[in-house]
UniProtKB/TrEMBL annotation, chain A:
<dbReference type="Pfam" id="PF04066">
    <property type="entry name" value="MrpF_PhaF"/>
</dbReference>
<keyword id="KW-0813">Transport</keyword>
<dbReference type="GO" id="GO:0005886">
    <property type="term" value="C:plasma membrane"/>
</dbReference>
<dbReference type="InterPro" id="IPR007208">
    <property type="entry name" value="MrpF/PhaF-like"/>
</dbReference>
<feature type="transmembrane region" description="Helical">
    <location>
        <begin position="51"/>
        <end position="73"/>
    </location>
</feature>
<protein>
    <recommendedName>
        <fullName>Cation:proton antiporter</fullName>
    </recommendedName>
</protein>
<keyword id="KW-1003">Cell membrane</keyword>
<keyword id="KW-0812">Transmembrane</keyword>
<comment type="similarity">
    <text>Belongs to the CPA3 antiporters (TC 2.A.63) subunit F family.</text>
</comment>
TrEMBL record, chain B:
<feature type="transmembrane region" description="Helical">
    <location>
        <begin position="36"/>
        <end position="55"/>
    </location>
</feature>
<keyword id="KW-0812">Transmembrane</keyword>
<dbReference type="GO" id="GO:0015385">
    <property type="term" value="F:sodium:proton antiporter activity"/>
</dbReference>
<feature type="transmembrane region" description="Helical">
    <location>
        <begin position="61"/>
        <end position="84"/>
    </location>
</feature>
<protein>
    <submittedName>
        <fullName>Na+/H+ antiporter subunit G</fullName>
    </submittedName>
</protein>
<feature type="transmembrane region" description="Helical">
    <location>
        <begin position="6"/>
        <end position="24"/>
    </location>
</feature>
<dbReference type="InterPro" id="IPR005133">
    <property type="entry name" value="PhaG_MnhG_YufB"/>
</dbReference>
<keyword id="KW-0472">Membrane</keyword>
<keyword id="KW-1133">Transmembrane helix</keyword>
């Protein structure tokens, strides 16, 4: 239970960067890292309560953040930004 | 013995994730932030998943944790590389303490190191 509580400030740091980040790529990488941290938190909850289907949700979170980051990277390459 | 090893991996992973997220919140420009976040969070989450695998053994929970660790180890650096390339092409400024910018030099463009004195961050 204690590692889950220690991981919550990490997700809050990522949320802070996603809120104030100057460019779009900042927000993109912050949301990506927040998805990966949530994946780790879900894995730890699955270990805590012995629910092995929660690891499926963990893998799905990792896949979704990967695909979202790749889509945003493609968007950034095609179109120039103001910053 | 295995349980102690699992606890060591798990806490090492938690500390790495926390420090990586702190770097993501505090570093001066996009590329530094992305380096800190990606390396530390990848290694930390792989450590946490390896700890879960060692803690629970060869049952479905442990094997799924191992699959998740391998997947994260392969995909997070790829997405970070794509984001850095995209933001370099889009022209996000480098930090003003940067000493070398090979990417835009190789592509024949002018350097995108931030030259504006002391306006960003007080």
């Amino acid at each position: 239970m204690v590692p889950i509580i220690v991981l919550i400030p990490a997700a809050l740091f990522c949320l802070y960067r996603a809120l104030i980040g100057p460019s779009i790529a900042d927000r993109a990488i912050a949301v990506d890292m927040m998805g990966v941290v949530f994946s780790a938190i879900t894995g730890l909850i699955a270990l805590q309560y012995k629910l092995n289907y929660l690891l499926d949700i963990s893998i799905a979170l990792a896949v979704i953040s990967f695909i979202g980051a790749l889509a945003l990277a493609k968007f950034l390459e095609k179109r120039s930004l103001d910053d | 013995m295995i349980s102690v090893l699992a606890l060591i991996f798990l806490w090492l992973g938690v500390v790495f994730v926390l420090l990586g997220a702190l770097g993501l919140a505090r570093f001066p420009d996009l590329y530094n932030r992305m380096q800190a976040a990606t390396k530390c969070v990848t290694l930390g989450v792989c450590g946490i998943m390896l700890g879960i695998f060692l803690r629970s053994g060869f049952n479905p929970l442990g094997v799924k944790a191992l699959i998740c660790a391998v997947f994260i180890l392969f995909t997070v650096p790829v997405s970070s590389h794509a984001l850095v390339r995209g933001s370099l092409i889009a022209g996000v400024k480098l930090w003003k303490g940067t000493v070398k910018d090979d990417f835009t030099a190789d592509r024949g463009g002018t350097s995108i190191i931030d030259k504006t004195p002391e306006t960003e961050g007080k």
